[in-house]
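Customer ticket, subject: "Can you confirm the structure for BTB domain-containing protein?"

Message body: Hello, I'm evaluating your service for our small team and ran a test protein. I'd like someone to confirm that this is what the system normally returns, since I don't have a reference to compare against.
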Amino acid sequence: MQTTSESFTPIPKDLIIRGANIVFMTDDGSKFHVHAYFFTRESVYWQQKLTGHNEPHHPLSKRYTPNDPYIIQDVDSRDLRKFLRVFYNTR
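Agent reply: Thanks for trying us out. I re-ran your input and got the following:
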């Protein structure tokens, strides 16, 4: 009996973008080191959550690091990874 082996590259659990200034963490523990600018520029929700203001271009109100990430609840890491492809070419 012949077996076929498929070659695949495992997707790393964490996504680290050079120059990132915020770390998000999903329920499964995956961490996403990204630029807060994309979130605060495009969304009043994220402006309020991350800066405390309702307009872009304000500094983050808190520093979210790998040891103290911003926890994103009820978002699957695969879905967040797909969403981040809008901003980053992560393939």
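A couple of notes from the result: The beta strands are 15-16, 22-25, 31-34, 70-71. Residues 20 and 41 are 15 Å apart (CA to CA). Feel free to reply with more questions.
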